[in-house]
Structure formats: structure tokens, C-alpha cells
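A.,

Following up on our hallway conversation. C-alpha cells first:
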């Protein structure tokens, strides 16, 4: 692949078990939380956290596939 050419994202072997908009659970700041996958990356996923309070902003984080568990 030449310089400047775009390469499509391919999830690793661990990431095959997950898909976009899937709910997952993981440890975040020493607490077990539930979130929804927004985007799949090579070795991790961007996850929107499910928070009990309704707010104008949603908190997102990037989590390695090895730390995610499907619900």
C-alpha cells in the first residue's frame, strides 16, 4: 500500500465477537459499567457509557477487546 492511501479498519481476532451498537460490560474507573459500542477499531472499540442520569453530553472511552464482555 502506497503512502497516503486509506486502509479500511479490520478488527483483530478478539474483535470479531463484537459488532456496532452491541451492549457490553467492562471495568471502568474501578466500577463495573455497561456501554454500547459506537465504533470498532483494530484492537479496541469506542464505547458510549450508559449513565443513569440523562445529560446533554455522553461519555465515551476506548476499551481493548480483551477487556470487553458481551451482554
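Then the amino acids I'd put at each of the 71 positions:
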Amino acid at each position: 500500500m502506497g503512502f497516503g492511501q486509506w486502509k479500511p479498519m479490520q478488527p483483530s481476532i478478539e474483535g470479531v465477537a463484537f459488532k456496532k451498537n452491541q451492549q457490553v460490560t467492562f471495568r471502568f474507573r474501578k466500577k463495573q459499567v455497561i456501554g454500547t459500542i459506537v465504533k470498532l477499531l483494530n484492537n479496541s472499540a469506542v464505547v458510549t457509557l450508559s449513565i443513569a442520569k440523562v445529560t446533554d453530553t455522553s461519555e465515551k472511552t476506548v476499551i481493548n477487546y480483551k477487556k470487553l464482555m458481551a451482554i
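Strands lie at 23-28, 31-40, 44-49, 60-64, 69-70. Curious whether your intuition agrees with the design.

B.
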